[in-house]
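Bench notes, bay 3.
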Amino acid sequence: MHSDGVPVALAERVQVMDVLRGVALFGVFLVNLVSFGGVDLMATEQQLLSLPTAPVDFALQDVIEWLFVDKANTLFAFLFGLGFYLQMQRLEARGADFERLYRRRLWVLLGIGAIQMFFIWTWDILHLYALAGFVLLAMRRVANRDLLAIGIICALGGRTLQKTLAEFTHLATWTGTSSGYDEASVLARQQLSASGDYLGIVQNFFDWAVIDYLSSGLIVGWLLYALGRFLIGAWVGRHGWIARAREFLPQWKSLAGWSLPLGLMLEGAATLLNDASWVPDWEHREFAAGMTHLFALPVLALGYVSAVVALFHSPRGARLLAPFAWVGRMALTNYLTQSLVIGFVLFGVGPGLALAGRVGTCTLAGIVVLAYTLQVVFSRWWLGRFAYGPAEWLWRALTYGKRPAWRLA
């Protein structure tokens, strides 16, 4: 990258970060489609219980909660903070105006996120990442120790605030409107879907976002949660532990050796406390499950990162993980495409399948595997001909104020 702000060359990419992004994107895709097609969102409990696959569906749901829920988005946010620091380091080393360029980058991301949230996918995360990115930009000179401490406090405090606001904010009751999670709301969304009423769905999700996400203050908890993981990622980036991962390979292997099994064990306990019918019930069971999850989450996320880094730096591991790198290099394009797939599967707009309430977790997980495989194939084909994914090219063009070369020489 030159001082005029030309985007980084392929040779300068940290390839293990692309792999990690690809792994995170699979987890995010799986959690989003399964969750949004699940109980209280786009299906009722009775509808899912009446499916012939119901026992296996609910068992698989527990497995997904154990392995992916909160872990995939934690990894994705961590990589955003890590990428922020690496971009800052490269730009400032070459005399570019990092603050001006990165602020423009965030404004573009905020615009893409707003369009995504209100017109395509109401659970969009891009707008939140842009908002948290502005705070991260303002904190880029904070000392290492303070950066880590604030990151941990925001991540843990933001998660706790989310739970508190979700449980004790009763704006829907005060205004006499639906919370959006009751059976009547689910059936109303299914009816809009069956009729193919796109504008009605947009209005329904807009009202839901205002009540459940914005007016309730839940956005603040999510913002702090994202910011905390950004700061931890930036802290890791400052130490070069990912960018120079080969130098720290013994440490990464050691981390994987204890954090992955410990995280899986702790998160397994939290999942059992939450969902297992055979676990004895007591007054503080829900609190115990929440605290176990809160502690297990960073340990398991660390286990995933360290295991991927260690595996990537072996010959067989690099070949095994290469498909994830293709998806990760086009992370924005693939994330936006996943949102379209979710809409196509769950809603009846245009050629949409309107499967919400008619299929369970097993079918939805199978769709994710198939769609992600197609993304791998498409990403590999595209990157063999073009330097950037379509959305990445647009993001860079709007950020740098010039059209970057698209086709490979």
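Next record in the batch:
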Amino acid sequence: MGLSTAPSALASTGSVALAPWPAHVPAAAVKDVVLTGEAVDLARFPIPLLHTKDGGPYLSGGVVVAKDPAGRRNAGMYRLMFRRRNQTGIDLASHSDLRRLYREAWQAGRPLPVAVALGVHLYGMLGATFQAPPGADEFAVAGGLQGAPLDLVRCETVDVEVPADAEIVLEGEILPTGWTADEGRFGDVYWTMGDLKWNPIFRITAITHRRDPLLYCLHMPWENVWLGRAMTEAAAWKILQDVRVQVTAVRAGFGLVVAAIRKASGEGKNALLALLAQGVTKIAIVTDEDVDIFNQEELEWAIAFRVQAGRDVIVVPGARGKHLDPSVRAWELKPGELPMTDKLGIDATIPEGIPREKYERMAYPFAERIRLSDYLGEA
């Protein structure tokens, strides 16, 4: 099932604490070199071809920062395909806060100012991938992870702040042209070569960087998956707590979330519905707390012997999907149209009305007394 092998520290705490509001600093090493106008040239960086059939070189590890009309900051991670010295494509084909902000700007006929911070500390990247509610500041989440406010520095040509510890910052605007530029293919997080798509264009107005910057690119799928899993697990834990389900463990994988709970009547289904509401979750499985969800055999045992498909499997059609998933047939969509998917929930908790002792685990007699050395001799 493509699951992780250990619980994340974030999920085991059940939440992500927010630090005090990010702090603005007047200067940072990322401003050692400032390039504007004709000096803006992405070719000065060794942007790699990451996969053999990619549509071009890609910047895959940038934290993209924008603001809504009220001035509230939003951060997320989006891939950028090199087009020319001052232009890239930007992947906004699926649901995201940045897509929503861009659509509002595009419909108003104006560009959306953004900045892309490359080479950001892991806390900044984790904060950017957290599924924060609209209006929440992902950099406050990053500060909570590091235990201190995140230092931000203001950009040169756009009214946006970026992490001061970045190696490189690309400033500019997403042009109000809509989903009209071809972008891709790209080897994506789902372990497949994605399709050619239509996406907006990001035009760069300034580049700032350290004197000897490091260009960081996120490698697919594992770097991306491990980065996202921790935040998915934390979000899943929180959403279960919000609906008053006693959760004891959470585990995330490729579009999959598994949770162990201390169940009251009916809460297996309640937990499934809550988990399936997460945008990144396509499949959810819920077990009782006696199942070690980090042990694949125990998880399969619970699914095999605590589940009756007609009663314990939930299918939710027409839910929010990801264009990266080939099964949603995103290539059939019109440019800018959002993909839909069916979601699957499996309630692998002990069924209502079946006594718990029916699932009493067998034990081997005298096992605690046996020493192999008594039979095989000392090694």
